[in-house]
């Protein structure tokens, strides 16, 4: 059973109301589906990891390296493709 999103209406205090033209069988099927989703599901922890602050520092360092490499490649491309105009453009942008 699928319900178009326009049939869901958010209510007050975390409650919701589903509106639409349902017959008794469809309403009963919907109630079963909604109750089945409310059942508690057991949680089984398979793996646990701790992330330290060095991970962020590594990402920052790699970001700076990628910026430097991309800037060098852009400068080389402009010099190769535009020749003198590229050199003038690069010298004015610094």
- Low-pLDDT runs of 5+ residues are none
- Number of helical segments with 4 or more residues: 3
What is the count of β-strands?
Answer: 2
Order of strands across the main sheet = 1-2
- Rg: 29 Å
**Kindly state the mean pLDDT as a whole number?**
76
Helix content: 55-70%
Keywords for this structure?
6% strand; single chain; mainly alpha; 94 residues; 2 strands
Write a brief structural summary.
By secondary structure, the chain is mainly α. It has helices at 24-37, 54-82, 84-93, and strands at 8-10, 16-18. The N and C termini lie far apart (62 Å).
Structure description:
It contains three helices and two strands. It has helices at residues 24-37, 54-82, 84-93; strands at 8-10, 16-18. The chain has a two-stranded antiparallel ribbon.
Topology:
Blueprint: E1 8-10, E2 16-18, H1 24-37, H2 54-82, H3 84-93
Antiparallel strand pairs: 1-2
Helix pairs in contact: 2-3
